[in-house]
């Protein structure tokens, strides 16, 4: 069966780069992309609630077995999934294939880790607390929350969906997935792999449609027991409306890269280009601002400029390094940041160039704190460089941001690196490497406006469960035995 994966029209249109492109697949009908009404959403959630009650009674080994089948199917279908990632969200072909395989690996690892984490309980006795006799035995176990609402972003619509789906399922929950508007077809391909694996009907549902139309109805639904969201400012609004349910949110970042004067500048430059321009900078863990000591700034900028000049720009099918950003509004926002920086005196290391949604990579030197690009997240291939005169100045800029997702430090002195890491108000600090979400079993979390809770496979499993306690009460002995 054929599926249509359309996203953008053509370079120079200001809308997208492909229209009516077709990716071949035999795994899901296109009519699943119709927008759901509130009545249809309500029915899906009710079905998810019913399916979850039976799924929670399914043996843990059986849940893991089905997840392993789904993982194998994801890898089998990596080509059609990757093709849709290319056509829907302009992801370079190589990166698209990697996302599909990485997602399968995540599901397999989650199956194994879930058996380990959920297979263990805890036993306590009452006389371990002062004033108590050994008359109470306490048994604890992890049980599922119920219905998990998963909302992944456009930039990783498969990987960040399975990072929510797999922990939920192994823990005994059901899933209602709200895929992003861009990336929905690839997400539906992925979900159908789970259906092919044999998961029960109603356990994994997809709600397609615009968040502006059904978002509040979904996130405030009384049968939703947990929300796992990855995206932008929308998450803050969700958190204010969701009520007393567990929330797992990753809301973006302004990831700072601090370069000390003793850093390996070749290593730093390579990571800045990789971290700042991979997938056209459309990553929450992209390098978003470079804070470099003045003494090495000229040398670093020249090395970065040389590497930026080698980046290829074009269509994702050609595996170009820089491809169109996801929407015209995104491109317009990025351009607004560039115009502001130009007006306020930033140094352009390349000529600014844009055709439609395609923006050529741009390094901005001599950026000052009064420029918007110093603080706002472009989510595009534009990277500001701020020259600093002390490490404290760099740390201050990092911590003054309302974001706190990740950061990185480049230095040959591990003692300095640890001290700077301790001082940076971010969820993760990478030493001598660009920010990165993976490997997927590592903890992943943000501070301040960058999120609530911690992700990573084990953390997600624990977050999507609650503790159930059973206490066995024994009679108070009237005499001493023995």
UniProtKB/TrEMBL annotation:
Coiled-coil portions: none
InterPro entries xref list: Ald_DH/histidinol_DH (IPR016161), Ald_DH_C (IPR016163), Ald_DH_CS_CYS (IPR016160), Ald_DH_CS_GLU (IPR029510), Ald_DH_N (IPR016162), Aldehyde_DH_dom (IPR015590), ALDH-related_metabolic_enz (IPR051020)
Annotated catalytic residues: 250
Transmembrane segments: none
UniProt keyword list: Oxidoreductase
Positions of the UniProt region annotated as Disordered: 1-23
EC number(s) recorded for this UniProt protein: 1.2.1.9
Positions of the Aldehyde dehydrogenase domain: 30-469
Oxidoreductase keyword on record: yes
Enzyme superclass (EC): oxidoreductase
Pfam families (UniProt xref): Aldedh
Catalyzed reactions: D-glyceraldehyde 3-phosphate + NADP(+) + H2O = (2R)-3-phosphoglycerate + NADPH + 2 H(+)
Family: Belongs to the aldehyde dehydrogenase family.
Name this protein carries in UniProt: NADP-dependent glyceraldehyde-3-phosphate dehydrogenase
Protein's organism: Gossypium hirsutum (Upland cotton)
Upper lineage: Eukaryota, Viridiplantae, Streptophyta, Embryophyta, Tracheophyta
